[in-house]
Amino acid sequence: MRRHLLTLRALERPQIEALLDAAQAYADDGGRSRPALAGRPVATLFYEPSTRTEMSFELAAARLGAVVLRCDVDHSSVRKGESLVDTARTFEALGAEVLVIRHPASGAPALASRHVEASVINAGDGMHEHPTQGLLDLLTVRQIKGRLEGLRVAIVGDVLHSRVARSAAWGFTKLGARVILTGPATLLPSASPVPGAGMTSSLDEALEGADVVMTLRMQMERQAGGFVPSLAEYARGFGITDAALARARSDAILMHPGPANLGVEVSLDAAYGARSVISRQVENGVFIRMAALEWVVGRMETRRPSTVERHKALDDMAQVAG
Ligand code: ASP
After folding, report:
1. What is the homologous superfamily of the domain 131-280 according to CATH?
2. Which atom of ligand 1 is nearest to the CA of 53?
3. How far apart are CA 221 and CA 225, in angstroms?
4. pLDDT in tens, 221-258
């Protein structure tokens, strides 16, 4: 079945687990190429800068044998005023079966998805969601901690403008972790964007007992100014340093979606330190995007039963045995 991947909010726990399991299977065999999308065009339309997301979608598509049609927005008809929908329809007319869209406007990929037959993957829309980032965050934590259920995840920083925070909060909460969003009061929304996720302006409270500390990039391009007195003051209050990490659990890990403003939301020592899993997040991005591409075109094999199915099978066996 052909689908779109627009938000983690819209996914059910078993769907998220199936995506994680498929990505884990790629990770297990080192991301070896397989021809699931052989010769099929996949378009990438990035209206905002990107390094990790764009490159990993391209690599994921290449590993699945797809042909990547990369829209260089600055040198395309977008510069002549072509609308998003017209550009999306043009790529579809060129044969693209998947459109991977990043856009500064929240909801832009959803809008495009209503006007094309192709599958749309949201690669980050404004302040809304970044579902493949959320999935790679879940996969990374699950690999390192062996579970998600019952973990405490502190998400720190510019929550107000962060699509990463929203997707992560939906994903972790749906998979049974406890999420606490924290940052200066001016960078927190008026209410928690995700039911079940807590919110506090006290970093200490958020770090207490945290298994995972995820720090967010200050979204300077989305801040009109005046949210913090200065970056130096922000760094003193909410920058994650080794000293701040010491307030979390002794085995807590540090995450950052990248690109990091070193010395602002995270210190260089912490970002490159033993607790940092930032490079693992990047690596997992490729496996997650392979799984996402296959999933939207309805080609994802369930190579392993999902965790839910495994538990259910065990329960069934226990009942039979009992
Ligand atoms: N790369 C992530 C995004 O595009 C995080 C960030 O830029 O802050 O949302």
Report:
1. Aspartate/ornithine carbamoyltransferase (3.40.50.1370)
2. 1
3. 10
4. 998 778 999 999 999 999 999 999 999 999 999 999 99
